Description:
The chain has 370 residues and is α/β, with parallel strands linked by helices. The protein has 10 helices and 11 strands.
Amino acid sequence: MNDSQPIAENKQTPFLSPPLDSEATRPEPSGLFNNNPVNLAVLGELAGQNILSATQFTFDQVAELCKLAAVLEKIEIWPYHPLDGKIVVTAFFEPSTRTRISFESAVHRLGGKVISIADGTTTGQAKGESLGDIGEMFNAYADLVVMRHTETTAPEQILDNMRIPLVNAGNGSGEHPTQALADWFALLKWKPELAAPKLPDEPKLHLGILGTPGSMRAVKSFLLLSLLFKDHIAKVTVISEMADPFGEDVISHLTEADIAYEVTNDIQETIADLDVIYMNSIAFLGDSYKSLDARYKLDSNSPLKPNAVILHPLARLNELDTSLDKTPHNLYFSQAHGAVFIRQALLVATLGRLDSLPDLEHAGKLADQD
Length: 370
Ligand code: CP
């Protein structure tokens, strides 16, 4: 905590995304940090770390990242410029709308600087340069790299040569760990009690996943991160046309977590029982994409539980109809908007700048009074 820096007492409007102008679910962040201060010591564990897989996080790290993100969503952070002097490279060797821009927005709002590679073909890759050699250069030009690549082995290819943290922003059919953080940030704002040990009378959630964890990286990372919250989860149901949608790696984590799960190819038999529905449209198969089976489509006439919420990492195709956008089932816009703040929290922690933040408890209380 930097006591030498004043708390922003000004009443300027804090940065919040524009209102959704609809019934879409947009949970208030304060529920996550009121009477529950952020534990900076837990977040200090992330300093200098590569962020490669959802499996690397502890429950406490995810809960504290989400609490810090909730404060950052409520306060004006720009006067403190916690990433002053830091340079982040966003190296995207595959298209992105949300991930690259939300990371870059996060860095800018924290007072850092960005070098942006929006298209890998503008790098030496177009001339046959190896990722290892590109990584060696990144050490000299930046303090952290956020990389997305079509190849699942891309992090392995670059890591040997890197001496600054690497954040995996999606590697082929591998993982998308910061998307999973954004997913759970949305869920913890929706139900802040999930960020604490489960109380005896608290109902457990039935989690539904429309997709293929074995080949959809966002789905895989969401499922793997969900295992940290297993005490709050009654069951995971995966709805997929594949008999084995998991793959060996995911199965071993499911088995180790000892969580109840089932697979079905019939969306109708289970949809009305789900509290949270996570869906995605695209499986990454090397250089090509495979869309979700046409049977698996939700719209405002789908027989959802009244309080059920839908998460989708986006981009969507036909599986998530726009008729759901203005309904309370829509948590996916909140999920996408919150990505800026969870990525801010992650960057401040991995770049070792937690001590440049204001007094979070005081700042959060002030913001909540506004
Ligand atoms: N959620 C997500 O990864 O979106 P983009 O592909 O637009 O980055």
